[in-house]
Amino acid sequence: MTHQKDSIERMTVWHAALPVRSARDHGSGLVADKVDVVVIRLETASGVFGFGEASPWAVFTGTAEATAAALDRYIRPVVLGADPADIPLIMADANRAIAGHTEAKAALETALLDCRGRAMGLPVWALLGGRYRKEIPLSISLANPDFDADMDLLDEAWAGGIRMIKLKTGVQSHAFDIERLERLRKAYPELNIRVDYNQGLQPFGALRRLKDVEQFKVTFIEQPVPGWNHEAMARFTAALETPILADETVFSPGDAHKAVKGRLCDAISVKIMKTGGLRRGMEVAAIAESAGMPAYGGDMFESGLAHLAGTHMIAATPNISLGCEFYQARWYLEEDILREAFPCDNGKVAVPEGPGLGFDVDLEKLAHYAADTRQ
Ligand SMILES: [Mg+2]
To answer: Could you tell me where in the chain the CATH 3.20.20.120 domains are found?
Structure first.
């Protein structure tokens, strides 16, 4: 089949606020009652459409208001009239049109891939080179200031087949972190526990705390110190038996290169919201692989739509082998915006087989939660 030219004729941008079930304290920021996402829908002259999500977090990558403006004002002109098959070219134009705004670019590339997959009758993972895995082990995060509520959540998750959790540490006292780890280990000796400090420790005295955490045989310790502090990351990576996972230290492929070269970590968390899209996420994973480091499928405060983009990327990327944390659509949001439930069961995310992302967005739900719509 030769290439049939098409052109993008419409772009709609929604800023939606999605209610959540409980508070989440991550040290770098508290999420109380809702999360903000920005959704775009592209439509072509031949009537093909595609959706993508930006999941900014004000304390991490940026605000939803800025993301909506980046898409509406700066990215829209490079998208309208473009052939949706020219994904690398459109992304290069978007990168020239506006600096930063990686979440907006992740939404754009997701929508382009969704469009393209629907037009060709292929899942997004097939467009990314093909499928390596059909399911991805799923981790849920425990970050409720009320730990009894988190234990109830874990009981429910364990009954549902979840065997992997991430405990958010470094927010309250070190004693509270150790107490929670003791309770978790006692209740679930076989649980695969990961801890994430979200940059919460000062390097002074941190090594002693991290050695206390090591006793609980956690799988990895994520981002103990601020992302910029490469010296401290390298020192803890060398000093600890437990692998160190870099999150805030590595956004881009260039950051991944520095992490590999300076041995700043033992593994890297790949998030499309940090890299600015799925293909750049795969580049980060490839750079990690070149140094023998595995990668992990991280996320932000996302709906099922962004989870789907990450799922297709991980499906096509062998080196993202440490599982994923796409739990929010099913375990955290009051209601997701997908028409059918995000596909996870028995502790695993099932890689979709339908064209594009394989799922449709419920436009009525989106309109219901939208604070602002631009077209
Ligand atoms: Mg993290």
So the answer is: 127-350
CA of 348 to the centre of ligand 1 (A): 20
Interval 57-98: pLDDT, tens: 888 878 999 999 999 999 999 999 999 999 999 999 999 999
CATH 3.30.390.10 segments of the chain: 8-121+362-374
Architecture in CATH of 127-350: Alpha-Beta Barrel (3.20)
Read off the pLDDT of each residue in 151-180 and give the average, rounded to a whole number: 96
CATH 3.40.50.2000, applies to 8-121+362-374: no
Please list, in sequence order, all residues whose beta carbon lies within 8 angstroms of the beta carbon of residue 236, skipping any fewer than 6 positions away.
206, 207, 210, 221, 224, 225, 244
Burial of 166 (0-12, 13-18, 19+ CB in 10 A): buried
Give distance in angstroms: CA of 30 to centre of ligand 1: 14
Q: Rounded CA gap, 136 and 309, in Å?
A: 13
Ligand 1 centroid to 179 CA: how many Å?
21
pLDDT digits (tens, 9 = 90+) for 99-116: 999 999 999 999 999 999
Ligand 1: centre distance to CA 222 (Å): 6
Q: In angstroms, what is the span from residue 26 Cα to ligand 1's centroid?
A: 9
Q: For the chain, what is the mean pLDDT? A: 96
Question: What confidence tens digit (pLDDT) does each residue in 198-235 have?
Answer: 999 999 999 999 999 999 999 999 999 999 999 999 99
Instruction: Band the pLDDT of 31: cuts 50, 70, 90.
Output: low
Query: Which residue in the block uniquely carries the two structure tokens 């829908």?
Result: 41
Distance between Cα 158 and ligand 1 center (Å)? 22
Residue 247 CA, ligand 1 centroid: distance in Å: 5
Q: How far away, in angstroms, is 250 Cα from ligand 1 center?
A: 11
Task: Evaluate whether 16 touches 36 at the Cβ level (below 8 Å).
Answer: yes
Q: How far is the CA of 374 from the centre of ligand 1 (A)?
A: 31
